[in-house]
Design a protein that fits this description.
Strand content: 25-35%
Number of domains: 1
Distance between the termini: 107 Å
Structural class: alpha+beta
Order of helices and strands: HEEEEEEEEEEE
Helix content: 25-40%
Radius of gyration: 27 Å
Number of strands: 11
Number of helices: 1
Length: 195
């Protein structure tokens, strides 16, 4: 005897097949969205990590004394910037001078946190004060709430409320425009002279 499918059985089979296909497509879409979101957040986190390591390296090499501090912070609220300046017993190329008491041959490195233009700019100045190097370290700086602060504390630098956002001009959206923040970070300078 020959058996055939009824119309009801065919409709049920098509419905079940469509359900399986739709579930697989929904899973694929969700995993692609999760991957894209994770990639965006990872990009911002990598930029923040790079920036913090860069600052740590330069603060660690700061040198100065009570009369000539190694680290200075100047905020210009009109321009929307905070400048972190670090004196180092090095030449422009980063080679140690080995003259810790002679500040006249030291280079200065400066981090300019320009939250109006969403940038962190790194500059190196030679002992005469001429700019020898400049580069943008991050183009994702966000200070919408005005809480970014940088201060010199106990022979080091304290940074509060540093926020980097994928597109700092737009609002935070964890999936499409993630933000990565640190509440507080402290960097020690190793070469301070107390004389």
């Amino acid at each position: 005897m020959k058996r055939s499918f009824t119309l009801v059985e065919l409709i049920i089979a098509i419905f079940l097949m469509a359900s399986v296909i739709l579930a697989a497509m929904a899973f694929n879409l969700a995993s692609n969205e999760f991957f894209a979101s994770s990639t965006k957040k990872g990009s911002v986190l990598n930029d923040l990590t790079f920036l913090l390591e860069h600052i740590q390296k330069n603060v660690f090499n700061g040198i100065g004394d009570i009369n000539n501090p190694a680290i200075e912070v100047v905020e210009d609220t009109t321009a929307g910037t905070i400048a972190l300046t670090i004196k180092q017993d090095m030449n422009v190329a980063g080679i140690q001078n080995n003259t810790p008491q002679d500040y006249s041959d030291d280079r200065q490195v400066k981090y300019i946190f320009d939250y109006t233009n969403y940038k962190v700019i790194f500059k190196i100045f030679d002992s005469g004060g001429s700019e020898a190097h400049k580069e943008d370290l991050a183009n994702k700086l966000n200070n919408d709430d005005g809480s970014l602060s940088i201060s010199v504390v106990d022979l080091g630098v304290k940074i509060n409320n540093l926020n980097l956002r994928l597109d700092p001009a737009k609002a935070v959206d964890d999936r499409h425009n993630p933000q990565v923040s640190i509440d507080e970070q402290f960097f020690f300078s190793s070469s301070h002279s107390m004389s």
